[in-house]
Write a structure and sequence with these properties.
The chain is mostly helical. Helices cover 74% and strands 0% of the residues. The chain is built from 12 helices and no strands.
Length: 341
């Protein structure tokens, strides 16, 4: 397993470099102009000077190598300096900067990341905790009333878009519900709220309920269907009949033998969904005004902020490759038949 992990990590380096070049090339050749949002009264020569100040007069390959140096060398060195309170070299190095704010892109991402993890990350965890038991029970009690209701709710959650579910919850709990009701919830997420005591913690939980449940409903609907299908497939296998013939308790057969093997394909769905947590739920964040990474990406696209969009997109690609590796490692831990060494 260790040798397999090392080989995959070594192979990951050229893969990510190729992905970074493709992302850079596509965004660079896209018809985006960073001066497009400026007033039309600005003379063309001034616009050209702005483009030169952003380095757009340089060849594309040169700018790509400069971005690689900034992202792969300068940014890690800057993080080491901040974490350990030390200075490496003169401490003055060029970082990846946003064209719109002239601030380091990594600092913008770190600033928005907690909000995304609070809302989208919590919704993913809640969705998994809901989906796995529903999938197990639905498969074990196939065609029962529980299975029928679970199937209907899952299909509904997977089919209805999150923007409709979000607006529906806002209408019910923020518009129709009286403000003095204990069930009234905020429709706008307050990103400035800091949890310092029990009262602020309750406020944080209350404003998280609607966006978390919208995303958890969508995630649980998808994962529960995979869980149910995998459980049904394994419940018909010979090893299940053998385990029952040996006199093992039904709970042991289902929760130890069947569940462990059924989780193998579901892990792929869960692992590949984790990068979406860091990417943020763009639509849901827009509906509830969550100041997260999804909204940051939308702002970068609308403002033609190429460095910001490039860096965010590449980070999402890194997370996808990383969690693919984690899924492969978990395969070997869950299924003794899988050996990588």
């Amino acid at each position: 397993m260790f040798n397999f992990t090392i080989r995959r990590l070594i192979f990951t380096v050229p893969t990510l470099l190729f992905i970074s070049f493709v992302i850079f090339f596509i965004l660079d050749t896209a018809p985006n102009d960073p001066t497009g949002n400026l007033p039309l009264t600005i003379p063309p020569d001034v616009r050209e000077k702005i483009r030169v100040s952003l380095g757009l007069d340089q060849p594309m390959f040169f700018r790509y190598l400069l971005w690689c140096k900034q992202f792969f060398i300068n940014e890690p060195l800057n993080m080491i300096e901040q974490w350990f309170n030390i200075t490496i070299g003169d401490g003055e190095r060029l970082r990846v900067q946003s064209w719109a704010t002239r601030s380091p892109v990594v600092d913008l991402i770190v600033e928005r990341l907690p909000q995304t993890l609070w809302v989208v990350g919590m919704s993913y965890v809640v969705g998994i905790l809901i989906a796995i038991p529903i999938g197990v029970i639905s498969a074990y009690k196939q065609y029962s009333w529980f299975d029928q209701i679970g199937t209907f709710v899952s299909m509904l959650g997977f089919s209805v878009p999150t923007f409709f579910t979000g607006l529906l919850l806002i209408v019910i709990f923020s518009v129709w519900m009286p403000n003095d009701s204990p069930f009234w919830l905020r429709s706008i997420y307050d990103t400035t709220l800091k949890v310092t005591d029990w009262s602020s913690f309750v406020q944080q939980v209350r404003q998280m309920i609607m966006p978390v449940m919208v995303l958890a409903f969508f995630n649980a609907a998808q994962i529960s269907r995979f869980m149910r299908a995998s459980m049904l497939d394994n419940l018909q296998q010979d090893y299940v009949r053998t385990a029952r013939a040996k006199g093992l308790k039904e709970r042991t057969v289902v929760l130890v033998h069947v569940l462990r093997n059924s989780l193998i394909p579901v892990i792929t769905v869960i692992a590949l969904g984790v990068p979406q947590v860091f990417g943020g739920a763009i639509i849901t964040e827009q509906i509830f005004k969550v100041n997260g990474l999804g909204q940051l990406l939308i702002i970068g696209i609308q403002g033609a902020d190429i460095p910001l969009v490039q860096t965010l997109t590449f980070i999402f690609a890194v997370l996808i490759v990383l969690f693919n590796l984690i899924a492969d490692i978990l395969y070997g831990l869950l299924d003794p038949r899988i050996r990588y060494d």
